[in-house]
Design brief:
Chain C: InterPro entries: PhaG_MnhG_YufB. The complex is a heterotrimer of chains A (184), B (128) and C (121). Chain A is 53% helix and 10% strand. Chain A is mainly alpha-helical and 184 residues long. Chain A folds into two domains: 54 residues, no CATH class; 115 residues, no CATH class. Chain A has a three-stranded antiparallel beta sheet with strand order 1-3-2, covered by helices on one side. With 128 residues, chain B is mainly α. Chain B has a domain of 78 residues. Helices cover 69% and strands 0% of the residues of chain B. Chain C has one domain. In chain C, helix 1 runs antiparallel to helix 2 and helix 2 runs antiparallel to helix 3. The chains are: A mainly alpha (184), B mainly alpha (128), C mainly alpha (121). Chains in contact: A-C, B-C.
Chain lengths: 184, 128, 121
């Protein structure tokens, strides 16, 4: 078996194909056999034609963690938007920002990306730079006073990462990060 | 119901106009990119508002396309943003443009006596 | 009070909320002093405003496959807005458009300077 990157037969990534099929079916709006088959064919064509590094998802999905992550995220998004709107509309106040660096616990690309996405949509912070190799995330905080201080903002990012890990990480990965109390 | 439409329309128009003002003022290309991204998203909201009033479902693909195009546009501009020289982002007045043209023409006339370059010479400025 | 009027009232409320947030995003992008703050105005109220408007539209349409495409638009918007903001912020840092004097704490510049000094020594 050749290990040459271009000569080796590419194995189809079924997770990505499934996601692309879901997108295709949602675009057409009705769930019929033709749409699903067309989605699978297109997904296979896209993933073999435009090759990207496959995403290694070794984790496992814990339903309780996912529910907690989703509800907390929804509450935070609503609160965030109203806070930023208030800040924009308050007559004589200009916000004082800061750029903080946070060292994340896990070293995986997937959790870094998810934490970065969620932190950008949630009150007060916006991801400016992410260093994959060291696991550092740099965020811009909109108003230091409104976030309760710099340490509170750092704590919020680490809490967000903890919720993501508790929702999606496997047991081995959780043990490696040193988080207390792994619940099944 | 009509006053809801009127209020929504006024709010969306005001938001878009303010974003366009920032696109004019913004001292750099990235400020303008952010402002125009907001204009595109406001357009999506306006098309959705129209679809809600008329109860039409066939303009929904327009929303999908607009959301994708808006994102790709701002990412492309950010990817190729180069270092702008100081004062380049400002809109110049007519006198300043005339003065710059005159200075450039004089510089060209003075260097024409020297070595002439085929094809205009090498690429100038930073390419990132 | 039938379900139709309830859905219409709910849709009207959602549309109003969404338009208000879009207006707040426009005000924010004009008023904030710095490139990075203006990106905040472009990401957060904008996304929630769009989601509210889409929910209002879904309540009005009430049936049909178009509602699922609206779910897709909302997911796309939530996935791509932070990425666009991140790329603009990174380009701003690299081309020197960020005003460091307005920041209270700037750890990214400190770390980059430290790494550059380590590379030179």
């Amino acid at each position: 078996m050749s290990l040459h990157p271009r000569r080796a037969r590419p194995r189809p990534q079924w997770g990505t194909v499934a996601w692309l099929t879901v997108v295709w079916v949602l675009l057409w709006g009705d769930l019929s056999v033709g749409n699903v088959l067309a989605g699978i064919v297109l997904g296979l064509a896209v993933t073999t034609g435009l090759r990207m590094t496959p995403l290694a998802f070794h984790g496992r999905v814990r339903p309780l963690g996912v529910v907690r992550l989703a509800t907390r995220f929804a509450i935070d998004v609503v609160r965030a938007s109203f806070e930023v709107s208030l800040l924009a509309l308050r007559p004589r106040y200009t916000p004082r920002g800061a750029v903080i660096g946070v060292q994340l616990r896990s070293h995986s690309d997937l959790y870094l990306t998810m934490t970065a996405e969620l932190c950008s949509l949630v009150p007060g912070s916006l991801v400016v730079e992410a260093h994959r190799l060291t696991g550092m995330l740099y965020l811009h905080v909109l108003d230091v006073r409104q976030s309760g201080g710099i340490e509170a903002a750092r704590r919020a990012v680490l809490d967000q990462e903890e919720r993501v890990l508790r929702a999606f990480a496997s047991d081995a990965e959780l043990a490696g990060t040193g988080l207390p109390g792994v619940r099944a | 119901m009509t006053w809801v439409i009127a209020v929504c329309g006024v709010l969306l128009t005001a938001g878009a106009v303010l974003a366009v003002v920032r696109a004019e003022k913004g001292p750099s290309i990235l400020d303008r990119t952010v402002a125009l991204d907001i204009v595109v998203t406001t357009m999506i909201a306006a098309v959705a508002l129209y679809a809600a009033i008329e109860r039409r479902a066939d303009v929904v693909p327009v929303l999908v396309v607009l959301s994708l195009v808006g994102f790709v546009g701002s990412v492309t501009v950010a990817r190729f943003a180069a270092v702008e020289p100081e004062g380049e982002g400002r809109v110049r007045t007519r006198e300043e443009v005339a003065a710059e043209d005159k200075a450039r023409r004089e510089a060209e006339e003075s260097t024409e006596g020297g070595a002439t370059d085929e094809h205009g010479g090498a690429a100038e400025g930073e390419v990132r | 009070m039938s379900w139709d009027t309830v859905a219409d009232v709910g849709s009207a409320i959602c549309l109003l909320g969404g338009a208000f947030l879009a207006f707040a995003a426009g005000v924010g992008v004009l008023r904030f002093p710095d490139l990075l703050s203006r990106m905040h105005a472009g990401t957060k109220p904008q996304v929630l405003g769009l989601i509210l408007v889409l929910v209002g539209l879904a309540l009005r349409l009430r049936s049909g496959g178009a509602v699922w495409a609206l779910v897709l638009v909302a997911i796309f918007q939530m996935l791509t807005a932070p990425v666009a903001a991140h790329m603009v912020g990174r380009a701003g840092y690299r081309t020197g458009k960020v005003r460091h004097d307005l920041l209270v704490v700037d750890e990214l510049t400190n770390d980059l300077d430290r790494l550059r000094k380590e590379d030179e020594s």
